Amino acid sequence: xxxxxxxxxxxxxxxxxxxxxxxxxxxxxxxxxxxxxxxxxxxxxxxxxxxxxxxxxxxxxxxxxxxxxxxxxxxxxxxxxxxxxxxxxxxxxxxxxxxxxxxxxxxxxxxxxxxxxxxxxxxxxxxxxxxxxxxxxxxxxxxxxxxxxxxxxxxxxxxxxxxxxxxxxxxxxxxxxxxxxxxxxxxxxxxxxxxxxxxxxxxxxxxxxxxxxxxxxxxxxxxxxxxxxxxxxxxxxxxxxxxxxxxxxxxxxxxxxxxxxxxxxxxxxxxxxxxxxxxxxxxxxxxxxxxxxxxxxxxxxxxxxxxxxxxxxxxxxxxxxxxxxx
Length: 326
Ligand code: SF4
Ligand code: MG
What we know:
With about 325 residues, the chain is an alpha/beta fold. Helix content is about 35%, strand content about 20%. The protein has helices at about 45-55, 75-85, 105-115, 120-135, 150-160, 180-195, 210-215, 230-235, 240-250, 290-295, 315-325; strands spanning about 1-10, 15-25, 35-40, 60-65, 65, 70, 85-90, 170, 200-205, 215-220, 225-230, 300-305, 305-310. An 8-stranded mixed sheet has the order 7-8-9-3-10-11-13-12, sandwiched between helices. Strand 5 and strand 6 form a beta hairpin. It is globular. The two termini are about 30 Å apart. The mean pLDDT is about 90. Iron/sulfur cluster (SF4) binds near residues 281, 282, 285, 287 and 288.
């Protein structure tokens, strides 16, 4: 994903565009095959919009999404249909999009039917197998959506994402509505399924404990931008960006011997309609300097695989680091 932007126009009463909500404002990251990459941040930071924009459920304003060497932003609707088989989405509440008058089995067979996969009997077998793998009994194939509990519903959401045998699933807060005990069941199931089905996850969450549990790497978002990226353990042990430090200082450290500095943030998240100049975090950052208001910080690799966009880290410093490591 390169420099991806999604700006929503806001129109005045005459229908003229007067402004934009810069929901996603130039994010770049790589997704490695077979990994779980988490986009984490407070609500409204643009992480869900990022997920939807990558799948072009909403059209990007700018930027590239390269998949198997091609920019899918340029694809026509027919080409996109093929890509959608490979990239699925899982939501917080899968049931808002399930037809309450249809049986679960029928709902799960629909995508196979649309894409012309198998004869009716074969489609039923595929769905039965998948339901069985996800812990359902055969007779549950004939049940209606309302007959399932929250955790079961999310497993049905997963079944729906898996039915086309995708490469990538974008999971948008898939466990946020569930009790903690059910959350870990679903997270563990996602992990098992990942190995079995060779899946890559882009996992979107505001919940750091969930992210710590499931993420191989994480990208921290603030006001439409990614401010820090790196391996999950590394970021939890040694966060570099002041915003990441602030987020993490609110939860217990994984290493009790290593005390975290407690960072309190002032004020509210500014509006994405008119985000602050320079580093968008400068209005709340306890370390803000003059340059922070004027210049947008570059994304620098400050530790191996750990990237930070903050003026506290300089290109020279990052380079020096590289030299001493070598
Ligand atoms: Fe704080 Fe400046 Fe770094 Fe932004 S660039 S996080 S304002 S120190
Ligand atoms: Mg969201």
